[in-house]
Amino acid sequence: MTKESAPLTPKPATWKTEIVDDIKRALSIADNLTVSEWADKYRVLSQAASAESGKWKTSRTPYLKEIMDCLSVNSTPKKVVFMKGAQIGGTEAGLNWIGYIIHRAPGPTLIVNPSIDTSKRNSKMRIMPMIEATKILSKCIMPQKSRDSGNTILQKEFKGGVLIMTGANAPSGLRSVPIRYLFLDEIDEYPKEAGTEGDPVDLAIQRTATFSNKKIFMISTPTIKDASRIEQAFLEGDQRYYHVPCPYCNHYQVLRWRNVVFDSKNLTEACYKCEKCGVLWHNWEKETILARGHWIATKPLNTDVASFHLSSLYSPHGWISWTDIAKEFLAAKDEPSRLQVWTNTKLAEPWEDMAGEQIDPTNLMIRREHFGEYLPAGVAVLTAGVDVQDNRLEVEVVGWGRGEESWSIEYLVLFGDPSTPELWGQLDEVLMRRYAHSKNIPDLGILACCVDSGGHYTDHVINYCYARSSSRVFAIKGDGGYGKPIWPATASKSWKTKKPVYVIGVNDAKDTLMRRLHIPDCTGCWHFPMERGHEWFEQLTNEIVKKRFSHGRLIREWRPRKDGVRTEALDCRVYAYAALRALVRNYRFNLDYSAEQMATAEPRKADKQQTEQPNTTTPKGRSVRSKGIDL
Length: 631
What we know:
Elements: H1 15-26, H2 35-42, E1 44-45, E2 54-55, H3 64-69, E3 79-84, H4 90-104, E4 109-113, H5 116-133, H6 135-138, E5 151-152, E6 155-158, E7 161-167, E8 181-185, H7 200-206, E9 215-220, H8 229-236, E10 240-245, E11 252-254, E12 260-261, E13 271-273, E14 280-281, H9 286-291, E15 294-297, E16 305-310, H10 322-332, H11 336-346, H12 361-366, E17 381-389, E18 392-400, E19 406-415, H13 421-431, E20 434-435, E21 444-452, H14 458-467, E22 473-479, E23 492-493, E24 500-505, H15 506-518, E25 526-527, H16 534-541, E26 543-550, E27 553-560, H17 568-587, H18 591-599, H19 608-611, E28 616-617, E29 623-624
Parallel strand pairs: 3-9, 3-16, 4-7, 4-8, 8-9, 10-16, 17-21, 19-25, 21-22, 22-24
Antiparallel strand pairs: 1-2, 5-6, 6-7, 10-11, 10-15, 12-13, 13-14, 17-18, 18-19, 20-21, 23-24, 26-27, 28-29
């Protein structure tokens, strides 16, 4: 064989080709490959992190294709906003983008989650499983070593870039380092401020200022209308909606809740009614209609911000069906707090709050009822709320029934000096009372009580409650921020006494209670005794939601609408409601089950001997027997 006829053999890769590859990566030359094409070619869904493991297929969620492709380096928009419902694959689209960055378009990348703990969980349950399952990514990330800081839970280094994960509650993670790619996940769950340094979204976006070729991806379900970050960002963009065709008349339309039809009394299947021809679609037809859908922008002139809205009505067949969404609606429709969650997570729509809405106290007085001598039949448990003032304690005893229906059993004003034991002794007497029930059951005592420690005589309140913690008497402090749980998972510690104080979300409690106050026949509705006076109703309705802007952010606050009118009645109800939530969360109390058991009990028969017994008559005229109670 001559030298000229010798077979050609491929040359091994040299340092020159490696340098060329690194230069291409540094310059973000992604071979014109889009994010969706990259995902279809390389992405593998981990069995540990995905319900449907295996090779990624954009055809399963075709509405994500345009969203992902807008994140490609060769696309026009610098910012992509996705206001979404639950279970439609939004976070997976973001992960595909992260994988694309690591492999094809490297650069400094930051993922911001609502908190550091969420970031750690996201890294362990989403980022690492994606890297391990997708072979091409596992080759890009530096191997994890105990002495190597290049690959940690919150930081992954790769050729030409680094992936940093942080929480919106950590200001140190939101400043200093310049970032080209920014992924802001669930931004409506972010705190209002990152420490004392301002809005966390603004802080993170400032880190992309030095990159002309930056990309920002903002994703979240919305919360309160006009106060939702994702809603505001969506409205700033071109506002795209996904239009799908009717399988029968081919009319393209946006899926809307008003066109979902079902039998609310016997729900077996929910279908979708075409807005043009009226033919019903079945859930299994989604695969066809989604594949033929396309996005249409309602504000197409805005080319820098691509914003997308998608509800859970588009969730693929096999994920969440129209029937599932209808069932959740029926379960939540009568309870404002649950209906808000359903509206946010299923319809991807912001919740219309009560800003400016006023309730006429006179109209509430018309709804007063004669409770009679005994507790109303629907009452299953009693709680109390105590507001502390300089010269008195104000106490409401509330009866609760199925669906958190409530009855104002007593409202007491105990005058005295809160720094002396005499006044607290009066409160002890109230908390030890037993109340005869209209059902033939043992008399009920107050099962839990919350006492406000946030304003007056804090140490006295905390010490009083701590001594009675075994009787479920809790020292509480209100937190006016939104998104705070009405009852926290754990107590905080008083910095001075080192004793427990429970920080409750008073704004969310007021939102829930006041919406129920509007509707006389809803689940959770209020009942008032005939002897309750006009002043109490004035106090109950004197606060309304007011809006103001602070540092460019909309703030919602409950504020008095009339000067000089007290609000202790509403405060006491909030604290009594928090006590009920404490029973449910801390003691696994099942209110509906208790109410059902109560309903099966026989009515109490009139007992002449019992009615002739000496009674303790409250200042409001309700007759209750005063016996000791082991709370």
